[in-house]
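Hi R.,

As promised on Friday, here is the backbone we talked about, encoded as structure tokens. Could you run it through your design pipeline when you get a chance and send me back a sequence?
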């Protein structure tokens, strides 16, 4: 009987060791697998987002920031903007691309005769890309939106992402979205 108990104990210890090893492997690899996702929301950079259609272009200028910005939308977003559908349907994804704005000496030289006094500005370095993902159930606590802010392909920290929804609260009447569809020229 003692031999059977010892064998059972060895079996349980071996099985337990395997379970611990498996759990440790999952724990160690988990952060790496999710390192491309935004904290809190789990938003990742959608493949092919640069090929999405344009929603709008704008400029943000403060005493510290001078940026040119473009908002792009997936097919669901574009359809909702065109139909003026508020709230936006689940599956809507909006990308906001931000660049630092600088004067263009080359453009200014060319434009001086045709447009005296004109000043031309162009994008310089990329600042970041942000995403809003609509899933009314998953993100119910934040108006149905999940957020992702990425610089050089890496998500910002948790503190940055905690501020996302609060920033969008002033746009609550437009389903927390600042962008409005730019009219066709």
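Update: got your reply. Pasting your designed sequence below so it's all in one thread:
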């Amino acid at each position: 009987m003692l031999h059977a108990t010892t064998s059972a104990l060895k079996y349980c210890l071996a099985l337990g060791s395997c379970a611990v090893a498996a759990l440790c492997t999952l724990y160690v690899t988990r952060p790496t697998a999710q390192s491309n996702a935004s904290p809190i929301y789990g938003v990742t950079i959608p493949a092919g987002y640069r090929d999405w259609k344009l929603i709008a272009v704008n400029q943000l200028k403060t005493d510290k920031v001078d940026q040119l910005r473009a908002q792009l939308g997936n097919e669901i977003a574009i359809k909702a903007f065109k139909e003026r559908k508020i709230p936006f349907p689940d599956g809507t994804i909006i990308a906001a691309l931000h660049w630092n704005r600088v004067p263009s000496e080359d453009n200014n030289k060319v434009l001086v005769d045709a447009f005296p006094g004109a000043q031309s500005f162009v994008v310089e370095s990329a600042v970041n890309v942000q995403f809003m993902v609509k899933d009314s159930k998953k993100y119910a606590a934040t108006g149905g939106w999940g957020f992702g802010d990425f610089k050089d392909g890496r998500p910002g920290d948790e503190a940055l992402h905690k501020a996302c929804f609060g920033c969008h609260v002033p746009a609550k009447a437009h389903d927390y979205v600042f962008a409005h569809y730019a009219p066709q020229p």
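One thing I noticed while checking it: The helical segments are 2-34, 75-83, 105-111, 158-162, 164-168.

Thanks again,
M.
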